[in-house]
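User: Could you write out the 3D structure of this protein bound to 2-(butylsulfanyl)adenosine? I've included everything you need below.
Assistant: Certainly. Input first, then the structure.
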Amino acid sequence: MEKKAKQQIKTLIDQINNHNYAYYVLDDPKLTDMEYDNLFRELESLEEKYPNLVSPMSPTQRVGHPVDSGFQGYNHDVPMLSLSNAIDSAEINEFYKRVLKWLNNIDIDFVAEPKIDGLGVSLIYRNGLLERALTRGDGFKGEDITHNVKTMPSVPLELRDLENTPPPFIEIRGEIFMSISDFKKLNDNRKKSNEKLFANARNAAAGSVRQLDPSITASRNLSIFCYEVGGSDKINFKNQIEMLAYLKSVGIPVNPLSKKIKNGNDMIAYHKTLEENRLHINYEIDGSVIKVNDYKLRDRLGLRARSPRWAVAAKFKAKQTESQILDIELQVGRTGVITPVAKIREVDLSGVMISSATLHNQDEIDRKDIRINDFILIERSGDVIPKISKVLKDKRPINAKQFSISDYNCPESGCKIERIKNQAAYRCLNINCKSRVLGMLEHFCSKNAMNIEGMGPQIVKQLFEGNLINHFDDIYKLKYNDLVSLERFKEKSATNLIKSINHSKVTTFPRFVFGLGISNVGQHISKVIDKHCNSSLKKLGELKVEEMEEIDGIGATVAIAIENYFKIDKNNQIINNCLKLGVEIESTHFDQSHMKMLNEKVVITGSFQSLSRGDLKQRLEKNGASVTTSVSSKTTALIVGNNPGSKLKKAQKLNIKIVHENELDKFLKEN
Ligand code: IVH
């Protein structure tokens, strides 16, 4: 009996999987919804009868238990980079020309694909089984969303049977999204039950993926298209077209609109046609992505800091709508820079209500001749703050008023503002200006810095005005009794805030350093320095400009800003107080076990036949070597290509090891 049930279960699972494949990948369903539901129910009842025959790969097992401890973070083995943008035909053509030039005008193919406006995801399959799904996160570290991705019937739990055994490992990348019709249905239902509406399909997809309870995700109808392989074992694809065909063959949905093309004109034509057809496509796209087809050529082109040289995202023109400027206000940021902001008559711009738009600076106001009371077109692309694309001068009302920042003082405390030399921006010169201090404190507490939940701008302002916090360290001196007596605070909210302040104390180097608000030190730079300083704040405070400039990714401006920051005693005091009050910087764990060249300090000179200098640098760094630009007594090796410069002479003088192109493999210890 059981043997028969086992066979029946297998047949049902195969039928369901075949249906999913026909439906989601081939877009050619063979069963009606009812036939499919019947198969599913039949499988459920058999599994209920024979619980020992339930396989974790059964489609009935897609919805598991809620996770209760939040999302676990994982580093991506290969960073998930972003793409550089091309905003018009001329920039698309520039990309084409650039690639041709880098590759010495050889004959090449490109692949054009829609750029889906969803959430980047990485799917890891081991021996053909879905092991883990991660969000893109910051590109280096993502969050584990396996429990939710498993609920998506379009994502196979097991790669389809190939004639060959599945690869031991493959990491597939794609975009999770919600179709426009599903988004509308979801919002209609939410409206009926008085729930908050999602602003757009992307937010709805993001909200659905970031659920602790997978049954909610399962009810949301998410879709996916995959477009890259981040890494794999035992399969080597020659090019994108071959890789996409492989993904399709193993049951992974790929976009049917991908197309092989040849040149700049093809790219522009593809992009224009896609933009024209945009309204007929049942998912949000915000442009096209154009990629070099051949993977060996991709390797030759290599990467920039955060995007590959072999691809570009050609963006569609932003959606626009009309409104009117009611007033212009000045906002002061934490660095003192003044940003003029237009308060506009509230309008709906692609599903989001907009009531203000940035004017950037006085030059922008003058160049576009923007006046208070003007009618304007505003636009927004992606998550970017709305901006004014055009003043409708034909409609200019008689009460239109010109605006000049220089007529005003700093809005919060009336301090003097001045134009920064050689720049368009004005700045408030008073470092104790209330707006600046508030901006700094808000930034320190914000999500990507110390992430103190419940310490938003309003609470920061309240605590500052109540004289409870002036500098970052004051936050860690706050006591329950300080809070509970304040307006808007109750016992519970005071306890919660103290809890989240305590919770934030155990933090990482990049979070803390980003939180300090040193000018030009963003999240990315904080991570770069973390690696160099081994998560030591002491080491950071001692760094000199020359040493920092040697770090890949750090330029003179950043180096000077950091050195200047630590020259100020007060800053050091505040940091030390934070540490005394319990802030603890956890050491970041960098997996360096595979790095065989950690002690090498290498300089490159000349050009190479077999690879570009960029690729060479990348290979060296991947192995742990640090690559610097000038030869010094600390240099351990000089890599010499054709036409070496003066560096060769200097290295010979200092008796430094010289490595020629034919010795590279040995030197890289990759064999
Ligand atoms: S390729 C190294 N292809 O756009 C680049 N990305 O701005 C790998 N995206 O993070 C990405 N559609 O989340 C690629 N057809 C497509 C895409 C696509 C949407 C997203 C992706 C990426 C972002 C880059």
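The chain has 25 helices and 24 strands.
User: Perfect, thank you.
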